[in-house]
Write a structure and sequence with these properties.
The protein is of the alpha+beta class. It starts with 7 loop residues before the first helix and ends in a 17-residue tail after the last helix. The longest helix has 27 residues. Helix 6 runs antiparallel to helix 7 and helix 6 crosses helix 9. Among the domains are: 43 residues, no CATH class; 132 residues, no CATH class; 59 residues. It has a four-stranded antiparallel sheet with strand order 1-2-3-4. A three-stranded antiparallel sheet has the order 5-6-7, with no helix packed on it. Keywords: Membrane, Transmembrane, Transmembrane helix.
Length: 341
C-alpha cells in the first residue's frame, strides 16, 4: 500500500458515494470496524526527504589560493655516452676492418611524400596570398569596406599569417630527412670508423653530406621499436588488400579498382600524418647540434656484401633491441662510445 500514489485516496472515497444505499451502509459499518488502508498508508515525497535531510553547513575555513608555476622550457641536454657491449663492439670492428664503404641505412623513396608536402604548402601559401590581397589590402581604406567593421580586414590579416605558418610547416617536413647512412673505414696505422650521413635539403639543392665519428651521433628515441611497429602495420594493410581467391569473376575489375583507390587514400593519409605530425620519424643529432630525421620505413641496403650487419642483429628479439637501443636495420645505437681500433 505504501507504493500507492496520493491520487488513489480521493478516488477510493468517491467510489463509496456511488454505491447503492444498502451497500453504502455496509461499507460505512466496515469502515468503523476496520481502518481505511489508504488512511494508514504512508506516502513519501521529495518534500519529506528534503525535510528529513541534514542541512548543508558551509565550511568556515576560507579557500586557500593555490599558485600554479609556469612551465619553463628546458634546453636540450647532450646525452652521456654509454659504453658499448662486446657484441656491439664486434659489429663496429667488423665494419672498420672492411676496405670499402658499407651502407647501413637507405631511406625509402621520398618522391610521393615531397609532392604531397609541397602541393599542400603551395595551397596554403595561395590561401594566405588571396586572404591578404582581397580581404586585407583592398579593405584598408574605409570607403572600400562598404559598411564592414574596421576589425574585418585585421581578422583576415591574421588568417593570412596563419595560412602562411601552416604552409611553412608543411614545406619544412621533407627538409632534414636522412637519405642514407654509410660506414666509411679510415685506413691507417690505427683503423677507425666514420659515418657518412646524407641529408635531404630543399628542392633543386644538393644533399648535405656529413662525415662524423660514431660518438657524435645520438638519437632522441628508439629506432628499432618504431621500425618494427610500422613494418607490422604496413604488412597487415598489404595482406588485407590483396586479391582474394573467392572473389567473383565479374566483380574482379571493380574490386581491383576499389583496392587501388583504397591504397591511394591510405598512402595519402600516411603522408599527411608524416607532414603534419612528423609521425614515423626519429630525430638524430649530429655533434649535439645539427638535427636530422630518420624515416623508420627505410630498410637495410644489402649491396652484396659478404658480412651483413643485419645477420648479427636478426636473432635478437624486439624487446632486446629496444632495451639495447640499437636499430634492427641500421645498427645505430642511441648513444655511441667508440674508441678507434
Amino acid at each position: 500500500m505504501a507504493t500507492c500514489f496520493r491520487g488513489a485516496v480521493p478516488f477510493a472515497r468517491h467510489l463509496a458515494f456511488q454505491l447503492p444505499p444498502g451497500l453504502r451502509a455496509a461499507t460505512l459499518e466496515n469502515r468503523t470496524t476496520q481502518p481505511n488502508p489508504f488512511a494508514a498508508a504512508r506516502f513519501f515525497s521529495s518534500t519529506s526527504f528534503r525535510t528529513a535531510s541534514t542541512k548543508y553547513k558551509p565550511s568556515t575555513t576560507a579557500p586557500t589560493s593555490s599558485t600554479i608555476k609556469a612551465a619553463t622550457a628546458k634546453a636540450y641536454q647532450a646525452k652521456a655516452g654509454v659504453p658499448l657491449k662486446p657484441w656491439e663492439r664486434d659489429v663496429l670492428h667488423k665494419l672498420a676492418s672492411k676496405g670499402a664503404e658499407t651502407v647501413l641505412y637507405a631511406a625509402p623513396k621520398q618522391n610521393g611524400f615531397r609532392i604531397v608536402c609541397y602541393t599542400a604548402a603551395f595551397a596554403c601559401f595561395g590561401a594566405a596570398a588571396s586572404s591578404y590581397k582581397f580581404f586585407f589590402e583592398d579593405f584598408k581604406d574605409e570607403k572600400d569596406r562598404n559598411g564592414l567593421a574596421s576589425w574585418v580586414p585585421l581578422a583576415f590579416g591574421v588568417i593570412a599569417v596563419f595560412w602562411a605558418c601552416i604552409g611553412t610547416w608543411l614545406a619544412a617536413a621533407p627538409v632534414g630527412v636522412v637519405r642514407s647512412i654509410s660506414a666509411v673505414p679510415k685506413l691507417g696505422p690505427q683503423r677507425s670508423l666514420a659515418l657518412r650521413i646524407e641529408v635531404m635539403r630543399l628542392p633543386f639543392m644538393k644533399d648535405k653530406v656529413y662525415y662524423v665519428s660514431p660518438p657524435d651521433v645520438t638519437a632522441d628515441g628508439s629506432i628499432a621499436a618504431t621500425t618494427v611497429e610500422y613494418a607490422v602495420a604496413r604488412q597487415g594493410v598489404i595482406d588485407a588488400k590483396k586479391p582474394r581467391p573467392d572473389d567473383p569473376v565479374m566483380l574482379k575489375p571493380f574490386l581491383a579498382l576499389g583496392r587501388l583507390v583504397s591504397r591511394s587514400f591510405y598512402t595519402l593519409m600516411i603522408y599527411t600524418k608524416m607532414s603534419v605530425m612528423r609521425e614515423g620519424f626519429v630525430k638524430i643529432r649530429i655533434n649535439n647540434g645539427i638535427a636530422a630525421k630518420i624515416d623508420c620505413a627505410g630498410e637495410l641496403a644489402m649491396g652484396g656484401h659478404g658480412e651483413q650487419p643485419v645477420s648479427i642483429a636478426s636473432p635478437v628479439s624486439t624487446d632486446d633491441l629496444s632495451a639495447r637501443s640499437i636499430d634492427q636495420n641500421t645498427l645505430m645505437p642511441t648513444s655511441w662510445t667508440f674508441d678507434p681500433l
